[in-house]
Design a protein that fits this description.
401 residues; alpha+beta; elongated
Length: 401
């Protein structure tokens, strides 16, 4: 018997027991769909985190320097970073204004505690190098200037989403907003950097850090961001900065420098472990489905004992019997695998859209691997029934009713 005939016999056998075949496939379908959805969702979650860290900027260094006596270390740190021009291209204070600050323009009022996330103002105090350090691109107007810092000019640069929220897509440059009643002139607008609005960078309102006297009660001091030239420079700069900060604050405070890349590497490792864990859980249902395949194939062998006896009596070899039942098991698993993959694609798209707000399609490797695994399940769990069928003695098989 050739393979074509074996496939025909297998297809007829499956078609003759449609209900039973469908229920047999169900375990494979559910298991495979679960594997694809869970693994693909974990990959989408990993992409979400990668996009988040990318939105924070490459080769950035977060610096914290605090003293218990309230001594300002800004100028010393700034001078030291200027001497490190071999590695660092800029440094800026990065002091976020907390509390229920209120931003107004005309009839529009935005506050930290009474505005939805999409429009909530993110007020930062920095210097003229803030845009460089945070990888912003200027879209309209100008950036902060050195004289704005020195002269305590009441000016700001705003992010694209903040411009949309306050000015309804009109040009904000030259307009005046108020922050807690203090008039601030908008001199520039940054281009969009974070379409998913995960980091809040496009909701920024950048003020000269020398205006912190107006927000003295709710501004954390001692936070800085530096921009390194490249990845190698980032590593060197962090080492040098940590040594300098240790000497600068001593036992009178604490200081450290780190890069978001360190958190990203840790997060990526956790996501890889999560993918393996979720895939392992879903694989259990595949195992259950495989046991169901073996059970049904054993029932099939029992039902077709007489047919097997006739075939062996007229000269069929054991390998032909084994091939026939293996092909039938693989066909059941293969069909279940195709349906499971289709459901997995649909489920992945729905889950990722609802949770991550963007669609993630399973990778080719996951799809091909899932189908190959489903067929392999047919071989693994169909092998014992096939061997049992091939081992039947013709005389005994022919006696079967």
């Amino acid at each position: 018997m050739n393979l074509k005939q074996a496939f025909k016999i297998a297809a007829k056998s499956i078609a003759a027991k449609k209900g039973r075949s469908a229920l047999t496939m169900l375990g494979i379908i559910i298991g495979l769909a679960a594997v694809i959805i869970l693994v693909s969702f974990a990959q989408g979650q990993n992409k979400w985190i990668e996009d988040y860290y990318a939105s924070l900027g490459d080769n950035t260094i977060n610096i914290s320097a605090w003293t218990y006596n309230g001594k300002d270390v800004t100028e010393k740190l700034y001078s030291y970073c200027q001497k490190m021009d071999e590695y660092i291209v800029g440094v800026t204070p990065n002091n976020q204004v907390y509390g229920n600050t209120t931003v107004k323009y005309g009839a529009k009022t935005l506050g930290r505690n009474n505005t939805d996330w999409e429009s909530r103002p993110n007020i930062i105090m920095g210097n003229q190098q803030f845009g460089v350090c945070q990888n912003y691109t200027l879209e309209k107007g100008r950036d902060l200037a050195y004289l704005d810092i020195e002269n305590l000019n009441q000016v700001c640069v705003i992010g694209s989403k903040m411009a949309d929220s306050l000015f309804n897509y009109s040009n904000p440059v030259g307009e005046t907003i108020t922050i807690n009643g203090i008039p601030i002139k908008v001199v520039g607008v940054y281009a969009e950097t974070d379409p998913n609005n995960m980091s809040g960078k496009d909701r920024v309102i950048l003020l000269p850090y020398t205006l912190q006297r107006y927000f003295a009660d709710n501004v954390d001091t001692g936070n800085f961001v530096a921009k390194a030239k490249d990845a190698r420079s980032t590593t060197m700069a962090i080492t040098l900065l940590n040594g300098y900060l240790k000497g600068l604050v001593g036992d009178n405070g604490y200081g450290y420098a780190e890069t978001p890349n360190q958190w990203q590497e840790s997060s990526n490792e956790q996501n890889r472990m999560q993918q393996m864990f979720l895939g392992g859980i879903a694989a259990i249902s595949l195992l259950v489905g495989g046991i169901g395949i073996m059970n049904i194939m054993l029932v099939t062998v029992t039902e077709r004992t007489r047919e097997i006896g006739i075939r062996k009596a007229i000269g069929a070899e054991r390998k032909s019997i084994i091939a026939q039942f293996l092909i039938e098991a693989c066909l059941i698993c293969g069909l279940g695998g195709i349906i499971g993959i289709a459901i997995g694609y649909l489920g992945t798209a729905i889950v990722c859209q609802l949770v991550l707000k963007f669609i993630v399609w399973p990778s080719v490797s996951v799809t091909v691997g899932s189908f190959a695994f489903s067929v392999a399940m047919g071989v693994i769990f169909g092998l014992y029934p096939a061997i049992k069928a091939s081992g039947l003695q013709p005389v005994e098989a022919l006696r079967a009713e």
